Amino acid sequence: MIDRDLRALSGELGAALRAAGWMCATAESCTGGLLAGAITACPGSSQWFERGFVTYSNAAKVEQLWVSVDTLERYGAVSEETAMEMAGGVLGAVPAARLALATTGIAGPDGATPGKPVGMVCFGVARRAGPGIVTRAVTRVFEGDRAAIRLAAVRFAMQAALEDLKRG
Question: Nearest to residue 30, comparing CAs of 127, 135, 160, 157?
């Protein structure tokens, strides 16, 4: 399932993380571990990947990543607010990580709601900045079947991490 392009992208991300001296970690909902799988498909990934959380249920998001119940109720599990809290929660749980990636979305074929179509994925990126944590989020809507949406989300998450690293 992890194709050559994703392995190459993982290698590029790994090189950027090694150059920065950083470890990354992930929190995944709709991608269900596929992002961690893509990262660890690259040999030597233990040098830049610390761990991954698969927090598919709301309870897991709250219990493992300290996502606020209020955030889940107000914005929903598929929201930029939740994605940012997931990413920030990873850094709270994993002191060795300096960069965290989170995915939460609707891979389909069911699950769409008004304003949240199938293919909508929210990404959270968090990084340590001095004594604090800086987070950002972005939302994309991908086309295709469930497998295509999940793979596109993995690709986008790694590209977002690379972009974040290039910003310095």
Answer: 157
Which stretch of DSSP H or E encloses residue 111? none
- Nearest-10 crossing angle of helices 80-93, 58-65: 40
Q: What is the mean pLDDT of each run of 10 residues along the chain (168 residues)?
A: 87 96 98 97 95 98 98 98 98 97 97 96 96 96 98 97 88
Tokens of 35: 């992002």
**Overall pTM > 0.70:** yes
For residue 37, give both structure tokens.
């799988």
Question: Based on C-alpha coordinates, what's the Rg of the chain?
Answer: 15
Give me the pLDDT at residue 168, please: 73
Tokens 């790994």 found at? 14
* CA-based max dimension of the chain: 43
CB contact at 8 A, 71 and 92:
no
